[in-house]
Write a structure and sequence with these properties.
Blueprint lengths: L3 E3 L2 E3 L5 E6 L4 H11 L6 E5 L9 H14 L4 E5 L13 H14 L4 E5 H4 L3 H10 L3 E8 L6 H13 L4 E6 L4 H17 L6 E4 L1 H4 L6 H4 L3 E5 L9 E2 H10 L4
Helix pairs in contact: 1-2, 2-3, 6-7
Bound molecules: 1,3,4-trihydroxy-5-OXO-cyclohexanecarboxylic acid.
GO molecular function: 3-dehydroquinate dehydratase activity
GO biological process, one term: amino acid biosynthetic process
Enzyme class: lyase
Length: 252
């Protein structure tokens, strides 16, 4: 699998990189979490801006981002505005979504930015270009909180994300059966074996899918979201357990 280097971190190589989500509502609480997370054993912190009570105020977002950047020290910062359609907290118009992404890219604070595949639509290649010009890597995401599409569809979605220029295609899907968890893992393995030109991030959500958050090195998911106390999605496993299992399942 090829890797995406971001500062000192080689995403897609070796042990999956661990992401801790910040899901607080106020700036004070967000910054408090950032300071605490900066000392934990994890590679990256995700700021879920849709949960911020001032998410609609670009000035407040920019100010908070600048402070986060400093507090997180060498940890990578992934910035995510999860729209209501994809399981997030706020409804955002297409124009509003594009404006938000461009505001974040202008700050020089993010290492990685989440761009939703379906929300970006035909604007995706241009947004990826803008991110790359700003020196930011793109996590291109798609979520299904109700079901798991068939493997062929999962694979073709990740390939389309890569073809649009995304650095890290990402899928989060909900299993309705054990077979659905296997479907997600099979799609992940197929990407690793047949499309090694791009690392991917995949997870099957909920308790049934939690196993998929722990076996990324074996099947080919380059990053995993861990629960540092408050989960940002169903099925996230506690940080200590994630670290212990990733260590014990290391291939080399
Ligand atoms: O897209 C994702 C993945 C996620 O939904 C999960 O299932 O771990 C958690 C979200 O915070 C993140 O933005």
């Amino acid at each position: 699998m090829s890797c995406v280097p971001v500062r000192g971190c080689r995403i897609g190589e070796g042990r999956p990189k661990v992401i801790l989500p910040i899901v607080e509502r106020t700036e004070a609480a967000i910054l408090e979490k950032a300071a605490a997370f900066s000392t934990l054993c994890a590679d990256c912190v995700e700021w879920r801006v849709d949960l911020f009570d001032a998410a609609a105020d670009p000035g407040a977002v920019v100010r908070c981002l600048a402070k986060l950047r400093v507090l997180l020290k060498e940890k990578l910062l992934l910035v995510t505005l999860r729209t209501k359609e994809e399981g997030g907290s706020i409804p955002v118009s297409h124009e509003g979504y594009l404006r938000f992404l461009r505001t974040v890219l202008d700050t020089d604070c993010a290492d990685l930015i989440d761009i939703e595949f379906f929300t970006a639509g035909t604007d995706l290649p241009a947004l990826v270009q803008d991110a790359h010009t700003a020196g930011v890597k793109v996590v291109c995401s798609s979520h299904d909180f109700h079901k798991t599409p068939p493997k062929a569809e999962l694979v073709s979605r990740m390939v389309a994300m890569h073809q649009a220029g995304a650095d890290l295609p990402k899928l989060a899907v909900m299993p309705q059966s054990r077979a659905d968890v296997l479907e997600l893992l099979a799609a992940t393995a197929e990407m690793t074996d047949h499309h090694p030109e791009t690392p991917v991030i995949t997870m099957s959500m909920g308790p049934l899918g939690a196993v998929s958050r722990l076996c990324g090195e074996a099947f080919g998911s380059a990053m995993t979201f861990a629960n540092p106390g408050t989960a940002s999605a169903p099925g996230q496993v506690g940080l200590d357990v994630v670290n212990a299992v990733l260590d014990s399942l290391q291939l080399n």
